[in-house]
Amino acid sequence: MPGDKGGGDDSKSADKEGHDDAMKRKIVNDAVAYIRGLAQLRGRNVEWAALAVRDAASLSAEDALKEGVIEYIADGVPTLLAQLDGKKISVLGQDREVRTSGMTVQRLDPGWRTRLLTTITDPNVAYILMLVGIYGLIYEFANPGMVLPGVAGTVCLLLALFAFQVLSINYAGLGLMLLGVAFMIGEVFVPSFGALGVGGVIAFVIGSIILLDTGAPGFGISYPLIAAFAFLNAGFFIFFLGMAFKARRRPVVSGHEQMIGSIGEVLDDFEGNGRIRVHGEIWGARSAGPLKRGQNVCVTEIHGLTLDVKADDQKSSEEN
C-alpha cells in the first residue's frame, strides 16, 4: 500500500541519518583520542586539547601558556633558540637534550622559480592572466597576422590554467565568465538594444565572484578588481558598439553605392551619349535629354562603365 511505502522510505532515511551521525561521532572521537595521546606524551593540558577538537576552543598566546597548552612565547628565532637550550625531550623512547647555544641560523630564501609560481598562483594574478589571455586571443582572431597579441594571450592563458590547477576552481563560475565575455562581444555584431551587453556584464560579475570555490581567507578574488574589470569590459563593448553604429551611419565613400547620387560635370554638349567628369574621373554618360558643356548632372544608375545621368536642377538653380 502507498502508506506502507512511505513508511519504508522514512525508515530508510532515518537509518541513513543515524549512520551518518554515528560516523561523525566516530571521526570526532578518533581525533580526540589522537590529540589526547599527543598531549599526554608532551605533557600538555589534556582536557583543553579535547575541547579544541570537540568545541573548536581557542586561546590567546598568554592564556595558552598559563593553561599549559604551550611552553614558550618567543618574538623571534633567536629568542626561541635561547629558551630551548638545555631542554630535555623524548625521541623514540630515549631522553635527549636540546643544545642550541652557539648555533648558526641559516636562512633559506625561496628561489626565483618558487617566487614566480607563488606570484602566478595568487588568485588575483591568475584572474588577470586569464582575462588578458582571452582578450589577446580575441584580438588575434579579429586581426589575423598581428602575432604578438596571439602569442601573449596564449602564454597568459596557459599560466592562468596552471594557477587554476593549483587553486580550487568552480567551473560554473568559469563558464559564466566566458559566457559573459561572449555576450559582450556578440552585442557588437547583433543589434539586441543592449540586452546581450547587460546580460554579459551580469554573467561576468557573478562568474568572477563564484570562480574560486574555497572559504579560506586570502584565497579569493578582490571585489574591487572584479568591479574594475566589469566596468572595463562594459566600456570596451560600449566603445566598439559606438564605433559600429558610427560606421553604419557613415556615408559610403567608394564602390557602386557611392557613385549613385554623385554630381558630375558635362564635358561636351550631347544628347543621348557623351562624357562627364565625376570625382576627377572621366566616364561615359547617357542622358534622356540634351545636356550642355559645364552643366552639372546627377548620377542615377551605373551600367558597366556607362553612367545614367540627369540634369541636376537643384545645383543649376543655386548657380543661377
Structural class by secondary-structure content: alpha+beta
Query: What is the gyration radius calculated from CA atoms?
Result: 40 Å
Work out the count of structural domains. 3
Bin the helical content: 55-70%
Task: Walk me through the structure.
This protein is α+β, with helices and mostly antiparallel strands and 320 residues long. The protein folds into 3 domains: 14-97, 2-enoyl-CoA Hydratase, Chain A, domain 1, CATH 3.90.226.10; 113-249, no CATH class; 256-319, Beta Barrel (OB fold (Dihydrolipoamide Acetyltransferase, E2P)), CATH 2.40.50. The protein is built from 12 helices and 7 strands. It has a 5-stranded mixed β-barrel. A two-stranded antiparallel sheet has the order 1-2. α9 runs antiparallel to α10.
What is the strand and helix layout of this fold?
Layout: H1 2-42, H2 46-54, H3 61-66, H4 77-84, E1 88-91, E2 94-97, H5 112-120, H6 123-142, H7 148-166, H8 171-189, H9 195-209, H10 223-249, H11 256-259, E3 263-266, E4 270-278, E5 281-291, E6 296-303, E7 306-311, H12 313-319
Parallel strand pairs: 5-7
Antiparallel strand pairs: 1-2, 3-4, 3-6, 4-5, 6-7
Question: What keywords describe this structure?
Answer:
single chain; 320 residues; alpha+beta; 2-enoyl-CoA Hydratase, Chain A, domain 1; OB fold (Dihydrolipoamide Acetyltransferase, E2P); 3 domains; five-stranded mixed β-barrel; two-stranded antiparallel ribbon; 12 helices; 7 strands; 57% helix
Gist of the model:
The protein has 320 residues and is of the alpha+beta class.
